[in-house]
């Protein structure tokens, strides 16, 4: 019996399916976070000046929930009985932990851990756990976050794939009779936060005008390979996720009382805490409010 040749239409259909799968796969891979400057960026073109990295003009950070993105990593966090120290594990799909040699250095650190108080003052800290031989990563809990419930977010880069990974977890408070101290009064201040637009879904350039203590000027110094790190959390939806950003080079970063600019694809409407981590000889966290409109 003579074998039937596939028709031209059948061949074209197969080619079309293969092409569609390839295109979907390509954009699917593009959608994965793969740089240290932004997550789910459009175009990674970092600018390096004097050894410091700035995000490129075409880059924008995004606000995402690691839980919703379902990265192939699980975050486990445990605190000691006093609540002064913690230990985390980053578990792969096979249950094995990420060891130090499997995590790349990103902005001078391997692990960036963002701890946010659940409720209350919504205090925040950016800490860097250090690796142990058993695959755990250990850190000190800042005094202002002791004895309170926390939500932990972590981002790091996988050495093998060069992909940025994100994970989150809730952290129950350790039992303590002492109330956490209030956040220290900032020495420096955010004079003004302005945004090129506040409309949800838009790409906004957010600028922070900074000033030093009364009668003194502020000059920024490097912090984690940049001139500032910004993190954004929702006030209305504590478990919504976060954005972790680095400044875009505009020229005012090195001035006395500088202005830092961050490009962000704006999240859903609501009120957000905009935290800035800076260094003027001392590490300091400043908070401003960002309101996103419909």
Write a structural description.
This protein is mainly β. It has two helices and 19 strands. Strands 6, 7, 8, 11 and 12 form a five-stranded antiparallel sheet that branches. The radius of gyration is 22 Å and the shape is globular. It starts with 7 loop residues before the first helix and ends with a strand. The relative contact order is 0.16. Residues 21-43 have low confidence and may be disordered.
Describe the structure in brief.
The chain is mainly beta and 294 residues long.
Structural classification: mainly beta
Question: SSE order, as H and E?
Answer: HEEEHEEEEEEEEEEEEEEEE
| C-alpha termini separation | 67 Å
Strand share of the residues?
35-45%
Q: Whole-number radius of gyration?
A: 22 Å
Are there runs of 5+ residues with pLDDT below 50, and where? Answer: 21-43
Count of distinct strands: 19
Tally of helical runs: 2
Helix content: under 10%
Question: Average pLDDT, to the nearest integer?
Answer: 85
- Global morphology: globular
Largest sheet: 5 strands, antiparallel
Key descriptive features of the protein:
single chain; 294 residues; mainly beta; 5-stranded antiparallel beta sheet; 4-stranded mixed beta sheet; globular
Topology:
Blueprint (H helix, E strand, L loop, with lengths): L7 H23 L16 E3 L2 E3 L6 E2 L3 H4 L3 E7 L5 E8 L10 E2 L7 E6 L6 E4 L2 E2 L5 E4 L9 E9 L5 E8 L17 E7 L7 E9 L17 E6 L7 E4 L13 E7 L4 E10 L3 E10 L2
Parallel strand pairs: 3-17
Antiparallel strand pairs: 1-2, 4-5, 5-10, 6-11, 7-8, 7-11, 9-10, 11-12, 13-14, 14-17, 15-16, 15-18, 18-19
């Amino acid at each position: 019996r003579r074998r039937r040749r596939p028709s031209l239409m059948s061949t074209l259909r197969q080619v079309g399916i293969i092409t569609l799968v390839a295109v979907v796969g390509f954009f699917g891979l593009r959608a994965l976070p793969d740089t240290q400057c932004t997550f789910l960026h459009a175009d990674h073109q970092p600018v390096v000046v004097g050894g410091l990295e700035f995000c490129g003009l075409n880059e924008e950070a995004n606000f995402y929930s690691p839980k919703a993105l379902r990265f192939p990593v699980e975050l486990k966090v445990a605190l000691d009985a006093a609540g002064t120290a913690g230990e985390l594990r980053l578990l792969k799909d096979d249950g094995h932990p990420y060891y130090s040699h499997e995590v790349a250095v990103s902005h001078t650190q391997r692990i960036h851990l963002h701890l946010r108080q659940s409720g209350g003052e919504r205090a925040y800290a950016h800490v860097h756990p250090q690796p142990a031989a058993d695959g755990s990563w250990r850190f000190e809990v800042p005094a202002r976050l002791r004895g309170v419930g926390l939500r932990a977010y972590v981002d790091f880069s996988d050495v093998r794939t060069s992909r940025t990974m994100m994970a989150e977890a809730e952290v129950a408070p350790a039992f303590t009779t002492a109330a956490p101290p209030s956040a220290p009064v900032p020495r420096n201040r955010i004079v003004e936060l302005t945004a090129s637009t506040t409309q949800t879904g838009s790409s906004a350039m957010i600028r922070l005008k900074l000033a030093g203590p009364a009668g003194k000027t502020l000059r920024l110094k490097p912090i984690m390979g940049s001139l500032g790190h910004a993190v954004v959390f929702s006030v209305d939806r504590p478990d919504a996720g976060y954005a972790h950003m680095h400044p875009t080079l505009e020229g005012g970063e090195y001035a006395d009382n500088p202005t830092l600019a961050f490009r962000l694809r704006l999240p859903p409407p609501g009120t957000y805490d905009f935290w800035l981590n800076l260094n003027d000889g001392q590490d300091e966290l400043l908070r401003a409010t960002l309101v996103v409109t419909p």
